[in-house]
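Budget justification, computational time. The allocation requested in the original proposal was used primarily to generate structure tokens for proteins on the priority list. As evidence of use, we reproduce two of the resulting records. The first is shown immediately below.
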Amino acid sequence: MRKSNLVYTFFISVLLALGFLRCQKSKGGILVDNTVYIPLPKKVISPKDNPTTPEKVALGKLLFYDPILSGNKDVACATCHHPEFGYAELIDLSIGVNGVGLSSKRRFKTDNDIPFVKRNSQSILNAAFNGIEISGAYHPEKAPMFWDLRAQSLEEQALLPIKTFEEMRGHDFSEAIILDTIVKRLQNIPEYVGHFEKVFETSEAITSTNLAKAIAAFERSLVSNNSRFDQYMAGDSTALSLSEKTGFQLFKKAKCTNCHSGPMFSDYKIHVLGVPENEKLGYVDDGFEKNFGFRTPSLRNLSSTAPYMHNGTFKDLEDVLQFYKDLSSGLSKNDQVDKAKLDPLLKEVDIKVMDMKPIISFFNSLNDDSFDKTIPKEVPSKLPVGGDI
């Protein structure tokens, strides 16, 4: 982290410790109710062992759109994380292997024994900032990923869908050999050989480790850090409408910030909420450590990521807010989750029906579509760009 960022982080920490934070402007943010609100950083930090270069990002982009990475050569990363839908998709549970179509139009092919992907596809936008603290500090080597925190960086995250049966691997290859299979495929494509050798400055550069680094570098470039809320936090008092400002106040008053805090509006912690099961899955998803807990999602770019929650069980934001309103009574919405297991923070949440529209209006101020939406015209494998969509 740069020296200036360290100084700012130290300054904010001291103010928090001394309890000096009130409703006042501060350089790069606003200090309200003992909580600091700052815009997303303008620059992205990369891990020391995977510095970002334009060439690496370009290679990662080709790989991201190339179905050569899947067992049946029919699914790409972009199949379920498409720029048209904010690098997510408008469907509750993803369809990976043996599917056709894009987003809400995607269906399994006629002869199918592949299950739905276990959970809702989260947007990759701003995943570079996962784990960011209220001070703005974050560590890309330890960035929490997935709904159950099973990966701790974009590099670690990048390979897991390739290894997962229903996402990209399919029937033909075991988890033990799929990565070696993909590496051999890439090594047989001269264009990829040239790209990898140029980016990693070595011969025999195509390895699973470098594959992950290239994809992570591209994903780290996908940021949307200039929403109207970011502009407001940076000092432009006119960036938000009156309704959005009201919604922000009601959002805080309702104690939503107990979990949705920091520049990404997530504490990146596991919480047990008792979200209803998605019957399409066909079995009970018991979440983190089989305790029905799931990670707090970001609230950024919500307009692109419906339906909501870890299993996409709520079709719109009103459904989500109504769910939290009902939870304030202490009743679990999931028969598998006992009332005593619900996160105690839920007792503090107080959302009123009359406050829902202003809060949703505030959510809209977190949208920002100024991210890379360009799609390669072709990929080195010459397979359909984005998979079978």
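The second record produced under the same allocation is shown here.
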Amino acid sequence: MKNGQNRKDIRPGLQVDIVLKQDQRTGKTTRGVVKDILTNSPTHPHGIKVRLQDGQVGRVKTIIE
């Protein structure tokens, strides 16, 4: 499993675990399928921000192969 800090590792259709804004304190993850990549920079120390197909937005913690 890869962490979600490199934009090149993430593409629409991948299954990922993200941390939602309201879960940042607890670190609780939410699993879903990437719809859009919202971070423009090639890397981000807290994870690339994505929108899932169900509309939730958060930072990628792990990429599920």
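A brief technical remark on that second record: The chain has one domain: 2-64.
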